[in-house]
Amino acid sequence: MPIYKVRLKCKREIAAGTMAFYFEKPQGFAYKAGQSADCTLINPAETDAEGDTRALSLASAPYESDLVLATRMRDTAFKRVLKTMEPGTELTLDAPHGSFTLHNNASIPAVFLTGGIGVTPVRSIVLQAMHDRVPHRILVFYSNKRPEDAAFLDELMKSRETNPNYTFVGTMTQMKESSHEWHGETGFISKAMLLKFIDNLTLPIYYIDGPPAMVNAMREILSAAGVDDDNIRTEEFSGY
Q1: What is the mean pLDDT of residues 179-184?
Q2: Which of 2, 66, 95, 136 is positioned for an S-S bond with 37, CB 3.0–4.6 A?
């Protein structure tokens, strides 16, 4: 797998405690929407037992001109260095990795069940699918505590305007703690919520990503509903 050096262009907060970092895309760098990269700091000012490398999903869609990495900003040496990086700073990418990518058979719907920072590969896949005008029916269920915590929420909601085959369902679990208005779903993703938008739960291919507890809960719901294990694809986001 090639190792690329990438240069930081800019960074910004995209949700409470969550930042996005925009890097120049190297010449010849190609990847599929939903893939990830092993990101390594170069000569960081500090380090700790967790090391200088993290596996991060590429939140950008392949058609976009920049590479985008987004992450929750925990108090680790890696995250502290990342947060204070100045434009022009370089890091290395060992990429691309992973098979959390949209299936080819357009007759089978794709359903994404995601929460928190697990949304990063989903953003990549959805934006690329809208750009390519794929014929797949795509449904995204995105769970957060509050709208303030939901990275890329506006983008994913707005994408509904460009493709009638795309359905976005946001849901919030702790709206009592929010200062924002929210007119979408509330509570955790459940079988009842899925059935509001999916007639036959056994038909789609499901993509589940987020914290391990959420991934396990979603898998249990789908298995109990009779969904074949071969139609469930998962990716856990832990320790980020």
Answers
A1: 96
A2: 95
